[in-house]
Design a protein that fits this description.
single chain; 461 residues
Length: 461
């Protein structure tokens, strides 16, 4: 190979590498509008203070401290996403999460559309019922107008056991937690159910004739969380289109990072609440609602029990649920000597996770069997609240599908239960008659601080 050919080959490889890096940055490093607006406001405030600081006031320590405080505030807001996620005191159901997530999805679909030069691209996310629901679409309609509103087409919802292309992506879940790419080279010759035909017809009415499609799993660290579906133009997918599919990995990364950011902010929000709060029932209610109402968790119901100091039984402190979940439960106190599952967790002081809880051998372990069946719950976890080897409560989330409680979610919930247990321990100790007015002693305070730091370290790794 001549030097000239080597130079051409090198430049081509360098160009492709730069293009890939730019694509990754444009997706993973994307900032939603709320975040950009917040940062701009902080920058403007900082600039205003800098301009007001004249040279003859540089020795003014008060002004310098104000400036330093502004800089620190700006840096802290730039390094976290709590301003756009909306986790504020008194709000266990952050209002901005869905809006910001929609911005990220639309941006990712836009880049995919441009890179692969397809007809239309759509994204499917898992709901709390374990169904794949279309969350976004991007493409040009037959009038050459851009369509980015997900509501422009009827909703699409698929179960994982169906035969359509979306469901087939995650079908390997029986053997693996990760899905497999699916491809239809000629949609006109594919075997489709009547319902599928209706959906394809709706797409064609909006976007024109469909020839082929690819459905791609978007994987997180533990499993497939989403599915990207791409319809080709009339000519089908080119070699360049196939090579450009690496863009999907960046979409998966961006959405996984967002979920991680939300989970970290959940923990940080709770840390702030527990520093100020004194009402156990109020805090338990906020914790349960945070786990259930947050769209970035899989839970549909959560029950927190706290040990009573008088009868030593475990009483329901709060029961949070989605609107679709009934409250037809027996919530009488649980004794440590009971033979049901919860009592065994209390005795062992260890986490228990059960999948397929409606199976007879599992269902018999529960007191509220009818409630589990009528709400079609599939998985359950019981997290003990333990302080200094003493169990003082339990936190029990339920899911609407066969959820596997992967290591990341276990770390998150265990971190939250550690904080909650510390809070209950502190409040009960402060309220007991033998406590001094200065609350926790120094040894207890150091232990609580270390436990909190270790919990945050686990979920941010």
């Amino acid at each position: 190979m001549s030097h000239k050919e080597q130079e051409v080959q090198f430049n081509d490889a360098l160009h492709k590498s730069q293009a890939i890096d730019e694509t990754r940055t444009s997706i993973v490093g994307f900032k939603p509008k709320e975040e950009e607006q917040q940062e701009q406001e902080i920058k403007q405030e900082l600039q205003k203070q800098v301009e007001e600081l004249s040279l003859d006031l540089l020795e003014d320590e008060v002004r310098l401290k104000q400036l330093q405080s502004s800089i620190e505030f700006y840096n802290s807001r730039s390094q976290t996403r709590n301003s756009i996620i909306g986790l504020k005191l008194g709000s266990s159901n952050p209002p901005h999460i869905d809006k910001v997530k929609k911005d990220i999805i639309n941006h990712a679909l836009k880049i995919t559309y441009e890179k692969i030069e397809c007809k239309v691209v759509t994204l499917f996310l898992f709901s709390k019922d374990g169904l794949l629901e279309r969350a976004g679409l991007y493409g040009l309609n037959t009038d050459a107008n851009l369509v980015i509103d997900n509501d422009e087409l009827d909703s699409e919802i698929y179960g994982i056991n169906q035969k359509n292309i979306i469901s087939r992506v995650v079908k390997p879940f029986s053997e693996s937690k990760f899905g497999e790419l699916q491809f239809i080279s000629d949609i006109s010759k594919a075997e489709l159910s009547d319902r599928e035909k209706q959906r394809y017809e709706q797409y064609e009415q909006k976007f024109g004739i469909l020839t082929s499609e690819i459905a791609i799993p978007l994987n997180g660290r533990n499993k497939t969380y989403r599915v990207l579906r791409i319809f080709s133009k009339e000519k089908g997918f080119s070699k360049e289109d196939i090579l450009s599919l690496n863009v999907t990995g960046y979409i998966a990364t961006a959405l996984s990072n967002f979920r991680r950011d939300v989970q970290i902010e959940m923990f940080k929000y709770l840390s702030k609440v527990l520093m100020l709060a004194v009402d156990i029932k109020m805090v338990c209610k906020q914790v349960a609602e945070m786990l259930v109402l947050n769209p970035e968790t899989a839970f549909k119901a959560c029950i927190i029990r706290v040990k009573n100091n008088y009868d030593r039984n475990f009483h329901v402190e709060t029961f949070s649920r989605l609107d679709t979940v009934t409250d037809n439960r027996d919530d009488n106190p649980v004794k440590e000597t009971d033979k049901r599952l919860l009592s065994k967790v209390i005795q062992a002081k260890k986490l228990v996770v059960i999948q397929k809880i409606q199976e007879p051998e599992n269902l018999i372990k529960f007191r509220n069997q009818d409630w589990i069946c009528e709400n079609n719950f599939e998985s359950f976890g019981c997290f003990p609240l333990v302080v200094k080897d003493e169990i003082i409560g339990t936190l029990s989330p339920y899911t609407g599908y066969n959820y596997d409680f992967h290591p990341d979610i276990i770390d998150l919930v265990e971190s939250i239960t550690s904080l909650l247990a510390m809070f209950i321990y502190r409040v009960k100790k402060e309220n007991s008659s033998y406590m001094r007015e200065d609350s926790l002693n120094a040894k207890d305070a150091r232990w609580l601080s270390l436990t909190s730091y270790n919990s945050l370290s686990r979920i941010t790794q």
